[in-house]
Design goal:
- The chain has about 200 residues and is mainly alpha-helical.
- The protein has helices at about 1-10, 15-30, 35-65, 65-70, 80-95, 100-125, 130-150, 160-175, 185-195.
- It is built from nine helices and no strands.
- The chain is about 75% helix and about 0% strand.
């Protein structure tokens, strides 16, 4: 029963949900006319995804290809669920809280932080990642949020954005919750191709 609970929680951080939600939020920002917000959101999510992909492929190559290095570099795969949940759910809190009074903004941030921590903990509970891998994913996602906050300095954005963001969240969950995109296996295929193409050191 407890394992089923953790599995249901971890599905909220799957790329099927997170990337669909990110795309819907981008549409909402564009429709609202907030081009700067759309650019900041796109750069944060894309930057997070790119950083995670590079890390996963690089560690995969280092642990399987380079004989002198492989013994010193254990198999390591930063948690994509943790990173994506941080940038998407945390970013939603940043965007949605901009027009709220400070107490409500603080409460929204706390709730988002607890939700992200719950998803991150689920990755350890289902034995998909080690604590270090989860913390690494959280750090990458947090860095992406900091980038977004920096890009949105001294800009107010449209009013009444929170209902649109909430609608995007509900729609993404209704469409994609329970779906699983095999991003990890695709990155493993990329690493295998690079290894075979001689892009990394050989045996």
């Amino acid at each position: 029963m407890q394992q089923a609970m953790w599995l249901s929680i971890t599905d909220f951080g799957d790329s099927a949900v997170g990337l669909t939600l990110a795309a819907l939020v981008l549409v909402a920002l564009l429709v609202s006319g907030w081009s700067r917000g759309a650019v900041a959101w796109l750069l944060a999510v894309a930057g997070c995804g790119t950083a995670m992909a590079v890390c996963k492929v690089a560690f995969r190559l280092a642990s399987t290809t380079c004989a002198p290095v492989a013994h010193a570099v254990p198999a390591f795969s930063p948690s994509g669920h943790a990173a994506l949940s941080t940038v998407v759910y945390g970013g939603l809190a940043v965007l949605g809280g901009r027009q709220l009074p400070m107490p409500a903004r603080y409460l929204l941030g706390v709730c988002a932080g607890l939700w992200i921590a719950l998803i991150a903990s689920s990755r350890i509970a289902v034995q998909a990642h080690t604590p270090v891998e989860v913390v690494t994913g959280l750090a990458v996602g947090l860095g992406a949020i900091m980038l977004m906050i920096h890009l949105l300095r001294r800009t107010e954005g449209p009013r009444m954005l929170l209902p649109q963001l909430a609608a995007a969240s509900v729609l993404a969950l209704a469409l994609m919750y329970g779906s699983h995109w095999q991003v990890e296996s695709s990155l493993q295929d990329v690493a295998a191709w690079l290894r075979g193409a001689g892009a990394a050191c050989s045996h």
